[in-house]
Amino acid sequence: MVGYLLGNYMVEEGFMTKEQLEAIISAQERVRVKLGLIAVSEGMLTLDQAVAINRLQQGMDKRFGDIAIEKGYLTEAQVTSLLKMQGNDYLTFAQTLVDEGIVTMNKLQVILKDYQIENGFTNTELEAVRSGDAEKIIPLFLPQGADEY
C-alpha cells in the first residue's frame, strides 16, 4: 500500500515512470531491507555513519549491527528494534528504490517531506503512512467525520 501511495506521488512529480513503479513494486518481494537504511530512516544514524559502517563491514566478517554497537553509534536495544522493522513495507519500498538507482536515500527523505507537506500530514500521520498499517493509513484519506470505511 505504501509503495503505491508514495510511488504514485513520485510518478506524478516526475521522479520515476509508471513502468519503473511497477518494477519497484514487483522487486520489493525479493528485497531484504538493510539495517543501515532503517537506522538512517529512523534518525538513529546519519548517512555518513551508515556509510562508514558499510565500509568497515567490507573488510570484516561482522554484521552491520555489531559494528554499529562496537563503534558506539547504536545500542543493542536499538539494533534489536531495527531488526524488527526489516519487514516494514515503507522500508522495503525505500530500499528497492535505492537499490534500483531511482533515488538516493537523501533524495527520498526530501520527497517524503514534500509528500507530507502536499498532503498536510502531521509527523504522526506521516509515521502512520510509513508504518504500512492499513488501519492507520486509510483514515488519513477519508473525509472528516467519516464513521467507517
Describe the model.
The chain has 149 residues and is mainly alpha-helical. It has helices at residues 2-12, 18-27, 35-41, 47-59, 64-70, 76-84, 89-99, 105-119, 123-131, 134-137. The mean pLDDT is 89.
| pLDDT < 50 runs, ≥5 residues | none
Helix and strand succession? HHHHHHHHHH
Report the total helices: 10
Strand content: under 5%
Largest sheet: none
Head-to-tail CA distance between termini: 16 Å
Radius of gyration: 16 Å
Class computed from helices, strands and strand pairing: mainly alpha
Assembly state (oligomeric): single chain
Query: Which outline best applies?
Result: globular
Instruction: Estimate the mean pLDDT confidence.
Output: 89
- How many DSSP-defined strands? 0
The helix content, as a percent range, equals: 55-70%
Give the helix/strand layout.
Layout: H1 2-12, H2 18-27, H3 35-41, H4 47-59, H5 64-70, H6 76-84, H7 89-99, H8 105-119, H9 123-131, H10 134-137
Helix pairs in contact: 1-2, 3-4
